[in-house]
Every structure is written in structure tokens, then in C-alpha cells.
Amino acid sequence: MKPTRLLVASTNVKKLRELKELLAGLDLELLFLGDFQTSEVEETGKTFEENAVLKAMGYARQTGCLTLAEDSGLSCDALDGAPGVYSARFAGAGKSDAENNAKLLRVLGSMPDNCRGAHYTSAVAVARPGELLKTMQGEVYGVILTEARGTGGFGYDPLFFYPPYGKTFAEVSPELKHAVSHRAQALKSVRTFFEEFLQSAPR
């Protein structure tokens, strides 16, 4: 039997790499937005889940494919949840991870450690044309440092200190990050969903 085709609706190369690693071993043929001609689905939702659903439904409709979309970001306690859904464009549209990190450090300034709590959220939605099949969410909690540490990961990982490891997400191996990250938690639920879905899906 041929594997089930699944469109992973992201253009973020580093995120795609993580998603591919976390979906490895499932009977899926992964497709990507570069395989199709599509119009960008605007992320107008007020929550990560709303944006994930918008993307999953929008790209499923355009491509006719079973589609997985993910929206994620960082929420800081002292900033009332900011940057939140604007995490990727916190410093402005098209800005780099380094520029987003620099702005976060400026905004938090010299705030004491006990006020620098933050959490990552990952929301995943799976849809086929005209039908939302499943949404899942994962979170991981940590502290924002006053300077970047490490060269791995992406996004705010160099600033996101995870106390159980005593390191930032940019300082640990992909295996250690995948064991606890927000995206890994959401994808664990996705794996369970697909294991059941693939058993019943027509081939």
C-alpha cells in the first residue's frame, strides 16, 4: 500500500526539519508547500490554535490534500502574553530570529529573574478539504535570560532557559529538546491521532 500523503503547511525550514523528525516512522508521504502553487493563508487568528486551523483548512482547500499546520510562539508573563501570536514578527515583518530576540531583551530590560517567566505554545491542526479533523496543543515553561546562550534551535531558543536541563533550548541536542518541547508534546498527540486515522483511512 502507498503511504498516505500529508501536506505539512509551513515554509519555515527549521520548523519543517523538526516536524519531519517528530513525524518519522509514520506511514506518511510528506508533501510541502513548495510542491504546490498556493496563495498564502493569512494568520489573522487571536490564538495559536485559531491560526493553525486557518492554515490547515486553507491549504487543504487549495491543494485537496490532507494537511497539517502548526502555529507556535513565546508568551512572556511580564508582557501579558506577548509576543504571543506575533512571535515570528515581533520586531517587524521579515525580521530575523536575532532581531526578534534583541527586541525581547530590550523590552524586558533589567527585569528581575522572578518576573521573566515565559512559555512556548505549539498548536497543531489537521484537516482535509472542508473538514477539520483534529487540533492539539503543547506547552513548555521556562525563563527568559538576559543574554543569548547556545547556537542550536531557532526562534527564541537562545534566550529560553529550561530549568530542568539547566540550559537554554539552543544549548541542548535536538533529542533532548524533542523530549520536552511544546512542539514535541503537541506532535505526540498528532502521532496517536495518525496511528488511529491511518488504520481506518482508505488507501
List keywords for this structure.
Maf protein, 7 strands
Summarize the structure.
The chain has helices at residues 13-23, 48-63, 97-108, 174-180, 182-200, and strands spanning 4-8, 28-32, 66-76, 117-128, 131-144, 160-162, 167-168. By secondary structure, it is of the alpha/beta class.
Rg of Cα set: 17 Å
Order of helices and strands: EHEHEHEEEEHH
Distance linking N and C termini? 7 Å
Structural class: alpha/beta
Q: How would a textbook summarize the main sheet?
A: 7 strands, mixed
The CATH C-level name is Alpha Beta
Q: Estimate what percentage of residues fall within beta strands.
A: 25-35%
- State the CATH topology: Maf protein
- Number of structurally distinct domains: 1
User: For the residues shown, what is the average pLDDT?
Assistant: 93
Would you spell out the secondary-structure blueprint of this structure?
Layout (H helix, E strand, L loop, with lengths): L3 E5 L4 H11 L4 E5 L15 H16 L2 E11 L20 H12 L8 E12 L2 E14 L15 E3 L4 E2 L5 H7 L1 H19 L3
